[in-house]
Structure formats: C-alpha cells, structure tokens
Target: FdhF/YdeP family oxidoreductase
Amino acid sequence: MNDIKPGRIEPYAHAAAGWGALKQVAINLVREKVSGGNYRSLLAQNQPDGFDCPGCAWPDRVHTSTFEFCENGVKAVAAEATSKRVPPEFFARHPVGALLQQSDYELEQHGRLTDPLVYDPASDKYLPISWDGAFDLIARHLKALPDPNQAAFYTSGRTGNEAAFLFQLFVRMYGTNNFPDCSNMCHEPTSRGLPGTVGTGKGTVTLDDFEHADTLLIFGQNPATNHPRMLGELRDCAKRGATIVSINPLRERGLERFTSPSHPIEMLTNSSTAIGSLFIQPRLGGDFALIKAVAKGLLELDDAARAAGQQRLLDVDFIAEHTSGFEAFADDLRQQDWQQLIDESGVPREQIDRLTHIYAHGQRVIATWGMGLTQHKGAVATIQMLSNLMMMRGNIGRQGAGLCPVRGHSNVQGDRTMGIEEKPTAAFLDRLGQVFGFTPPRAHGYDVVATIQAMLDGKVKVFFGMGGNFAMATPDTPLTFAALRACELTVHVATKLNRSHLVHGKAALLLPTLGRTEIDLQHGVAQGVTVEDSMSMVHLSYGGNPPASPNLLSETAIVARMAHATLGSAQVDWNWYAADYARIRDAVAKVFDDFFDFNARVAKPGGFHLKVASRAREWRTPSGRAQFLVRAVDTDTPIHRARAIHGERLMTLMTARSHDQYNTTIYGMDDRYRGVYGMRRVVFINRADMEMLGLQTGGWVDMVSVWDDGVERRADGFLLVEYDIPRGCLGAYFPETNALVPLHSTADGAGTPTSKSIPVLLYPVNAPVSAPAGA
Ligand SMILES: Nc1nc2c(c(=O)[nH]1)N[C@H]1C(S)=C(S)[C@@H](COP(=O)(O)OP(=O)(O)OC[C@H]3O[C@@H](n4cnc5c(=O)[nH]c(N)nc54)[C@H](O)[C@@H]3O)O[C@H]1N2
Ligand SMILES: Nc1nc2c(c(=O)[nH]1)N[C@H]1C(S)=C(S)[C@@H](COP(=O)(O)OP(=O)(O)OC[C@H]3O[C@@H](n4cnc5c(=O)[nH]c(N)nc54)[C@H](O)[C@@H]3O)O[C@H]1N2
Ligand SMILES: [Mo]
Model:
C-alpha cells in the first residue's frame, strides 16, 4: 500500500494526545475518504441524541456539551464511515485464494461490504446471493444437524443489546448454549473472578467516583491508545492532586504526560499534565505476587499501628460488618514468605513498600485494570487478590473508591448482560423459558477455546459469527484455521472484509450489516439500539449516516430472519420484534428485573445506571458477605516449567495492541507513543537480555513457543527493539503473534488464552526478504 513507509524506530518525546493526535485524525479522514456529510457524524459521537462510539467501552460524560475528542474514536468512526466499498464485482475479480495472500491491513482497507455473498467452491469465489437464499441455506444446515450442540454462535462486542437478546433467544430455542464470545479472550477472568469475592462480575464505580478519588491504581492498561477518553479523567484527577500509580512492565506514554485536546489553553500553549506519580514495572504475570505483597505489607503496618495504639489501617468496621473469611486470609498473609513475593513479582522491596504506603494512606482508592491482568494463567486469582486488597480498607461501595475493570468492545458488557453466556445460571434460564414458553437447554456450552477444539474434533459443524474476526483474534492460528476449514458451514455477519471470511467451511456465507453510525430504518422508522458501557450505564444510540449500501440489514433483522427461516414464527414472532426495537426492550424488561421500565428509562438523555449490587454493598455471594479468598502464589506455570528446562534464555512474551489498530483491524503501521513507525513485526526487549543472548538492536529473530505437546508454534521475522521492559520479558503486537499462543494455555477458571505470558525462545535470523511491511 502506498501509505506504508519504510520502518523506523524513534522514541516519542511529546505528551500523549495533543497536536499529534489531531494530525492523525486529519490523516485518517483523508485516508478513508470520508465524505463531507459523514464528517458531521463525528460530532454526534457520544452526544445525547447521537451514537455511541464503536471504539471502546469507556463511559461518556453526557451532561457536558463539549465534544470529547478522541483520536482512536475518530479512527473507529472513520473506518466505518469510509466511502470505499467492496461490491460483488470485487469478489468476481478476486478469488478467495488470491485474497488470502493480502495482509490483514489490505483486506480491511478495501472498504465496506455491500451485498450478501455465498462461497462457490467451483470458482473459489464469493458470489451474490439473495437474503432469503442466505437464510434458507443457514436454516437447512441447522435443521440437518442431529444435535443443536453441533452449532456454535460467536458474538463480538459491538453488537447492541437488542440484537444480542434476540440472538441468544433464537440460539437457545434452537437448542444450545454454545456462545463463544470475544469476552472469553478479554475480561472473562474479571467476570468469573469478582463473583467469588464481591458477588457481581462488574465494576463498582461510575465516572463520578473519579471526581472524588484521591488515589488511582492502573493495572495493565494502555489508555492513551485503548481508552483515550480515560486520560481526560486521569488528567483531572492529577490536576486535583490525586496520586496515580501505573503498574505495567512498560512505562506507557499516556500515563506519563498528556495534552488534553479538549482544553484549548493546553493545546495552544503546548503544555501538558503529568499523570503518573509512580511507575511500578512488575515482570509479566507478576501482578499477583505484587498485590499479595501489598496486602501483606498493609497487614504488617496495621499490626504495628494497633500495637502502638495508633489509628488502624484496616477498615475494621467494614471487615466486621460486610465480609467473611478475613482471619484465614490474614493467617495466610502472615505465613507468606516475603522473598517469594519479591522474586515472583520482579518488584524490589522498596517499591513494594512505597506502593503499600500510598495504598494505606489513600482515603478513596480506585483500582482499574485491563488485559495486563486478565490474559494470564493466574488471572482469576489476581483479580480476586485485588478485591481482597480493596476490601481490606473498605474501598468498595463508597464514593470515590472501587473496582474498575475497563472493558474493551463498546458493548461487550451489555452482550453478556443480555445472555450471551455459555454458562448461564439456572435462574436466568428458568425466567427466559417462562417468559417465552419453552424449555431452554441446560447443559453449559462451548467458549472460544472449547469451540475451536470441538470443531477440530468434528463436534461443531456450523459456525455463525456475529461480527468479529474469529480466525485472527483467537490463539494457535494454524490450528484455528484448520478448525474453521473443517466446518460444514461458516457464516459471518460483518461490516468489512477480514481473514475469517476467507478461512471458511465447506459452505460459507458473508452477510453485510449496518454499523452503529448508520441510520437503521425499520418500516420507515429510525431505530435506536442500546448499549451498556464499562460502568454499567445503559443508553440509546442512533446512527446518523446513510447506510453504506441499500442492501444491508441490521444485525437485529438478520437474527430475526434467520430465526424465522429456522424455527418458524409460531412461538415467537421474530419479525414483529425486529420491526420495532422497543418491543425487544419490553421483552428484556420481562426477563431481567433490573431492566424495569426499560423503554422509559433509556429514553432520558444519558440513559440510566444498571444496578450493580456490590456497588450498593449488597453481596450476592453464597454467604451474603464479601468474601476474602486465600490464594497461593502459583509456581507451577508453563513459564516456570519452561524456565526450569531452558534457564534464562526462556523469555515471556506479551502480545498487545499498537496505537494504529483496533484488535485485528490494522489502521496503519505506526505505534507512535512507543516510537515505532511503518512496521509491526517488532519485538521489545531489555538490553541486558540482548547481550545475554548475543543479539543486537536492529537484529532479526524468529520466535518459537515452548509447549509440551510436540507441536511447533512459531512466528518468524521480528525486528529487535531495545526497550525499558523488565529482564526476561518481551512485547510484540497481536494478531501476528497469535500463532505462538497454545490453544490450551488458558487462565485457570476462565478459559482465557494466556496472550500476555507466552513462553518463547528467540532465534537470530538474517533480515527477512519482505521486511518490514506489516502483517
Ligand atoms: N484504539 C483501540 N482501542 C481499543 C482496542 C484496540 O485494539 N484499539 N481494543 C479494545 C479492547 S477489545 C480491549 S479489551 C481494550 C484493551 O485495552 P488494554 O487493556 O490497554 O490492552 P492491551 O493493548 O492488550 O495492553 C495492555 C497493557 O497491559 C500491559 N501488560 C501486559 N502484560 C502485563 C502484566 O503482566 N502486568 C501488567 N501490570 N501489565 C501488563 C501492557 O504493557 C499494556 O500496557 O481496548 C479496547 N479499545
Ligand atoms: N494475542 C492476543 N490475542 C487477542 C488479544 C490480545 O491482547 N492478544 N485480545 C483479545 C481481545 S481483548 C478481544 S476483545 C478479541 C477481539 O476479537 P473480535 O471481536 O473477534 O475481533 P475484532 O478485531 O474486534 O473484529 C473486527 C471485525 O468486526 C467486524 N465489525 C466491525 N464492526 C461491526 C459491527 O458493527 N457489526 C458486525 N457484525 N461486525 C462488525 C469487522 O468486519 C471487523 O473486521 O481479540 C482477542 N485476541
Ligand atoms: Mo477485548
């Protein structure tokens, strides 16, 4: 592509956001050839009567009228509002085999899909098909399966609540709970971990709490890239004098200095706000030991305070009134060896003590976390240890304090709330069955990893993807490709072309859909969809742009027509629901008590806050109390085992996002804040490790995973970049590195692929011939 320049590495010397971000916005609008009319859509982003930004799940300050500027939100919107199209003629010219040769970047750059397509094996091409023809094909396949559990239904987190609700209803009436979703690869350890401690798998704070917090602990997150609007909040906290600690193997730029594009003075004077007060750089996966160390340190400080007759550092009233299990937890902390915590966290004792001091003296503490905590073997235990720590000082369920998982996809939390869940509770199934008069399947279904294995084993034969890019987002790429190719039928509902559409089953459909920025007309009436952000605010979103093609259907309409074709409409009149989304919301209100008066409440500007019981100090645990959990340091991880064999040559690799990507969608080749330009095949490494391995900056390596099943997993041709990263740790971008993640390397108790702790060895190579142009 002509906008790929030769690669270069050049440390970024400026604050995050600011003019650099504004320039990128202009570049993206031009690159996507966004038409004049669609420019206006940018102004409607996150406004009361506009659309919810399809970028991330960070909430909006709806009451302010200022345009909350966000470079990466603009990229997401521009990508959808692009004037480029991929009509059927494109597919007539390009067989699937040829498209497979293109990079992920090129595939998405072709633009928006315009018409439903069916794969023709004779010509190896996608050909046009009518919508009715497409739904008949799906229905025929689904009806032919001897067991509904031979189909799996994937959801990516952009799908609105209405489509998600109808989707799960259809799939359960069809007869399965096979709901793999992007959440399985993302915040699943949060959703599985928090119920064990505080009873509810969601965050306990709202944006208002950020105005009152005096201490913020940011674990494993890169907000400058992934949640840029969060930086505005952190800026205000920093200006107020709050202490902000970043716990991250990398010192991410946006957590150091930030120039707010929403504040003209800061922009005009080229000034910036320092964000972070303290940077702690644990080794990859070291957070559990670090958090446990802080808990132990806090307990020791409290013991000393009590002995000296000084004010206690534990919130003894909260512990007595609201929790159970504290004594066992404290005993375990007292017996815990200090040196083990220091060794496993990779954080020196002085820094642990500093963090402990900050935490012990913070009056209102918020802990936030992202993928740096969730994509590890011990992720569930880590999140539970973080809840333990927060409970020790009663930092849950009071103003300015709380747990704040920062979700990814803009409606990933809402989709789960609507029942996109492979392990549904009996209570939910009872209610769903009662409201719609059927017997929902009880057996738990497959998550992402189990779906891939089931496809490989011939147990899942039909794969339906509601958005996303299953082939590239999932681990063990060659294995996943083989799994998809073994299917009888693969179906993808998508806005843009991606590799999942090309790695298809024997029969395949590609169904184009409306994006959230587009007007969704049903019987001439514009429909809004609802979404739930990371802080449980539910609000309406109305697209304003004309659809990319007259032949697009909304996701809701696609579900309804597929359901009608498969199950008929005797029991549920699917198309009646899809004709007016308010009818679906009424049904949602019947199934979920917390959605009472749904239509009325969501009509108010800004919507409403969905009740989170733990925020109200209502603990939905078996004991009815918040539960302290004893958790031991895990010294038998794949990393420990591989290091026992390979010694210090064994490296731990994390795979994260560059600044110019949205998950598997590559917008460009730069990672500005980390100083990488024009390339993606780079690996960040500590200088001492390079010396130890006899490697040099500018050298090239292949990476090979260390796993115990005899399968060779490799990713070849990465440029070494010296970086401030702990010894023994590496960083690279996904999806290029997904081939290295073993399918069965997952988080205990959550099944999330361990994409941030992959044991690898490096092998030097000559510069690859095609270097360095991208994916
Ligand atoms: N522009 C843009 N926005 C996005 C996305 C995108 O791709 N592009 N993706 C969306 C989605 S789905 C999600 S889930 C979120 C993801 O947002 P993040 O959670 O920020 O995700 P990552 O880029 O994977 O980076 C995680 C951070 O964790 C750090 N880290 C890695 N391993 C560890 C560890 O062991 N311990 C600690 N403490 N830190 C660690 C990395 O250095 C990095 O700073 O963003 C959402 N928003
Ligand atoms: N190694 C590694 N792997 C990871 C991660 C990691 O950090 N490291 N992160 C994981 C995480 S956190 C996540 S959430 C997953 C993401 O996994 P997915 O959600 O499956 O992937 P995306 O890249 O977000 O999906 C992009 C595609 O969605 C389609 N799309 C965009 N908008 C819409 C829409 O409105 N409707 C429909 N129907 N389709 C749409 C477009 O066709 C686009 O190509 O990846 C995971 N994979
Ligand atoms: Mo995510």
User: Anything to note?
Assistant: The chain has 31 helices and 33 strands. Residues 108, 156, 158, 182, 185-186, 371, 375, 408-409, 466-470, 473, 493-496, 498, 513, 515-516, 555, 655-656, 663-665, 734, 737-738, 741, 755 surround MGD (ligand 2) (CB under 6 Å). The chain has three domains: 85-184+411-615, 189-405, 638-764.
